[in-house]
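Readers outside the structure-tokenisation community will struggle with the description of the input data as it stands. For illustration, here is how one protein appears when written out as sequence plus structure tokens:
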Amino acid sequence: METEPQFLALRAIFSAALARIDPYGMLKQRLRLDGDLLVAELEHTRHEVDLSRFSRILVLGCGKASSRMARAVEELLGERISGGLVCVKYGHTDALSRIGQTEAGHPMPDEAGVRAAERIAALARGADEQTLVINCISGGGSALLPAPMTYMDNGREVRLTLTHKQAVTRALLACGADIREINCVRKHLSELKGGRFLRLLAPATSLSLILSDVVGDRLDTIASGITCADESTYAQALGIVEHYGLAQSLPPEVVRALQLGASGQIAETPKPGDPALMHATNLLIGTNHAALLAACDKARELGYNVAPLTCLLTGEAREVAKFLAGIALDVRRTEMLVKRPACIILGGETVVTLIGEGKGGRNQEMALAFLAELARDPEHGRGISFLSASTDGSDGPTDAAGAYASAMMLKRARAAGLSTAAALKANDSYHFFEAIEGLYKTGPTMTNVCDLHMLLVE
């Protein structure tokens, strides 16, 4: 498959996007020291911190890219750093000497994550007015720092556990809830999320460097907004659980916590104007939009006429695939959107509502549904190629970033006697593409800014 020219082009386009959003490179470009001033220069923002005001600098963080981000900070500040700790997904560590790092489970939280949350919380509590805390935050932080809350119910102390948090995560992932809905619920069951981490840091000054993995780049959603004001409420979290019919299947302690919060018996997460936010600054350093622009540049370099459509793509993966297949067929037939050879690029994050017991991820599912649409084409997908992949290199609970669909893939599937309909029914896109060598594997990319979807029409 890798000798297919269209696949090589798609891989080159995706690789260019990854290079643009490498967190180490981005921080090296955007942060500098000017004497005692730490200067952050972003596209539309400049921020300065006078390091001479502080006796200690701690670096804390969570997310798939946080070790790579911490490495850039460590190289810049060197011996000024007193210590710190970041928590990353297994296999996502980097070379750090002054900042500690630990690994934990994602997307399903595990005991290692609970221990990491306890260690980071202890460091945060030890920060005082003379401490600057630099937080390196990226996608995945929600799962990597599970800190189940404790609450009072009629004079009785109730402690949520990791098992409770795992049940919530599993149910929300399976029902098709989007990342904002998932994080809204998780925020209201956590000791750290939804800005509660800032209450531990106070009265220290914090500077949070954030890599966005959410559509629209809302800071209160990335890693469940641990350093941001939270505008969502317990009532909304309870409404999400009820909307997806999860109230009967979730542990009763979880539902009770949301009910108590909605009735005002558990304190809300920090809202805008909360004193805990007074000394906190959040800077967005990387986005899906930046990755999309880099992909466009590479596609033009390869000789394609490029049509970037959006970096805000959402929806059910298999339904989005039908839309994208329609665009590809239209371009092949009429060149209405863009002239051939064409490259259409989109970014965002879709969801999958699980109905089967198979293995896969949203990008693999989208590629599978796209292949099913090519199977209905009288020309069997002639001249059309598609790659859907996650920028973190891990699509769902798999070792693939995504998958590749084309006329050649369709031919291989038919030769192997594989049914796209059966694989979709089972949500088993991984084994389908594994059988026809259609999986796209990058390994851990150490970054995370949602997904990219690239269409070539020759």
About this structure: The longest helix spans residues 317-334. The mean pLDDT is 95. The chain has two domains: 5-12+293-457, 22-288.
